[in-house]
Every structure is written in C-alpha cells, then in structure tokens.
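Cont'd.
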Amino acid sequence: GESVGLHLPTLSVQEGDNSIINCAYSNSASDYFIWYKQESGKGPQFIIDIRSNMDKRQGQRVTVLLNKTVKHLSLQIAATQPGDSAVYFCAENEKGQGGKLIFGQGTELSVKP
Amino acid sequence: DGGITQSPKYLFRKEGQNVTLSCEQNLNHDAMYWYRQDPGQGLRLIYYSQIVNDFQKGDIAEGYSVSREKKESFPLTVTSAQKNPTAFYLCASRPGFYGYTFGSGTRLTVV
C-alpha cells in the first residue's frame, strides 16, 4: 500500500570519521546482499556485495559485515568524505523469488566538513 | 560503454493521459525491473521481466503496464488508472545472480 510521510533515518558524521550504516533484513533464506548509494536525483550505484557464506568483505574504504544469526547487515565507510553524502540502501536476494531484490528503507548519510 | 538508458529524464503528464517511459540496456542482461521511488522513501517494485515476452507484476502494478518484445527494451506505461503517478521511476537490469544495474531515472510529474 501507499506509505505517506515517512522520513529516512539520518546519520550525521564529521568529515574524516568512520561511518556505520545498519540494516536489518527480513528473510533468513536470503543468500546474497548488496549495498547501494543513491545521490539526489540519480539512480542507485553498486557499492559492495556479500554472499551468505561470508561474514565480512572489504572494498576500497568500505566494509560490509553480515550477521546471519540476527539478520543484520552493516556498511562501514572509513574516513568519510563529503562526497559520501547520499542515501544508502541495503538489498537482499531471496532465494527462489525470481531474481527480485528486496530493498531496505534507506539511511541518509550527511557528512559535515 | 554498456549501461542502461532511461528517457526522458523529466516527464510531465496531464490528468487522464497515458505516458510511456523508455528503458534500454546494452548489457545483454536477461532480467529487467521497474521501481517507483517516492520522496524520502525506498524502492517499490512495479513490474519485472526475466525473459523476453514474459513479465510479472510486482507489489504496486495497478495503473501500470509493460511489454518485453526485445531483450534490450522494457518500456513502462503509466496509465490514467494510476491516480498518483508523480514519482521518480527507476529501471534496472540484472545479469543472473549478481546485483542490479540501475538507470538514471525518470521524474514524472502530473500537471
């Protein structure tokens, strides 16, 4: 149904600090997870992914952690920069659901100079 | 360069008018998707297609229609039955197991 008047969770950090963005996923059978970054007025961009047989994966300045016990995913951004300001979405791939990704609500990251 | 192209970037619709949003990809991906995004909210699935000449309804298909006559193209028509069409529309494609590649979006406004 329609959702009206929702506000995204917001995380505000100082430039140079580390950021941690959290996501709770819904299905214990999900086997693949992705983080996307969306800047205002643009389409989401892939940041990093992780399969369910892993607990941690590192990229350039970003790390994704997966805790299957509590169905929790986190994105860590090291040395956050103003260009990191955006909305971040997690997505899960539910096995047997026709290739559809299920997206979380999103978190808005604001980096203060 | 390979990618997904959505057009137009901005689209204005009058009351009672049907409009079609274009989505073209040259990535050779089988699966394509349409999402709607309202301000400050997440992505809601409208329609998706896993192969040519086949598509399925997503969570909010009412008032929308699609076709998949070619692998490269997955146009979305917003019909007059969609009472609140003002939103940001995103098209995506997927190469099997991995993540989506998104287009740059079409912002539709009712005038």
